[in-house]
Amino acid sequence: MAKYTGKDCALFVPSGTMGNLISVLGHCEHRGSEVLLGDQAHIFLYEQAGMAQLGGIQPHIIPTRPDGTFDVNEITLRLRIEDVHCPRTTLICIENTQNVCGGKILPSLWIDQVGSIAKSVGIPLHMDGARLMNAVVASGESAARILQGCDTASICFSKGLGTPVGSIIVGPEEFMYRAIRLRKVLGGGMRQAGMLAAAALYALENMVDRLADDHKHAKLLAQAISETGSKNVICQVADVHTNIAIVHLHPDAITPEQFCNRLSMVGKVCLF
Ligand SMILES: Cc1ncc(COP(=O)(O)O)c(C=O)c1O
């Protein structure tokens, strides 16, 4: 994975949440630090505020745009470096593909821009790359190219790639020593981990290209929904970049449960 991502080292961890938490804690060694990230980031929305709960670190959110990016000018406006009243900004996080925005692929030039701003102020950039391989397959760019401007990334093998457990943190060697200690204290140290590593290796060698099928299927699903012309069930085909198709339901017309029941009838009757 180090070779695949163009980084020095790779460290196996049990989950994406742990990969992100170790990365945040590893970069922000002092309580009272602040992390800049999008307000639709998985780290902010769905990881129990782990950085605050366990590290005394505060997330500082930037509005996420529908394409999964945020305005880079917001970074400089929100940076807090040295003021006795303020926390210190010690990390920037981005997410690729962006889950809540519908599996959107972040443009590499935007990532580079965020990376060079971060570098210019001496702050690292971490990518929550839970679905990085989806971005690789759909964009045709290598993981190393996509991650060029990032210091670290957490990448999952359990999403779309078929392994039951497992994520990898990639980054510089000196960071990985901190990451190993953090993995241990979080209870993520593993002994007989070869079986999991084998599943991840298999996924890397055999399952990545297959993600293209998932992307095709997500588009087909979106197309089929959109072709019904329903005003109550809406799915924008152009918004499907990878393996996520977000369906908007009119709350007065159909509940998510009813919609799922109707979907299970596809091939029999399907009337929206
Ligand atoms: C973007 C993103 N990051 C992190 C995670 C967390 O991964 P895990 O469920 O392995 O902890 C997810 C899970 O869906 C995710 O979508």
From TrEMBL:
Domain Aromatic amino acid beta-eliminating lyase/threonine aldolase, chain residue ranges per copy: 1-248
Cofactor(s) this protein requires: pyridoxal 5'-phosphate
Gene3D superfamilies, A to Z: Aspartate Aminotransferase, domain 1, Type I PLP-dependent aspartate aminotransferase-like (Major domain)
Lineage top rank: taxon: Eukaryota
Alphabetical keyword list: Lyase, Pyridoxal phosphate
Pfam families named among the record's database cross-references: Beta_elim_lyase (PF01212)
GO molecular function: L-allo-threonine aldolase activity
GO biological process, one term: L-threonine catabolic process
SUPFAM superfamilies: PLP-dependent transferases
GO CC, one annotated term: cytosol
NCBIfam families associated with the record: GntG_guanitoxin (NF041359)
Family to which the UniProt record says this protein belongs: Belongs to the threonine aldolase family.
Database matches in PANTHER family: L-THREONINE ALDOLASE, L-THREONINE ALDOLASE-RELATED
Name of the featured protein: Aromatic amino acid beta-eliminating lyase/threonine aldolase domain-containing protein
Species the sequence originates in: Cherax quadricarinatus (Australian red claw crayfish)
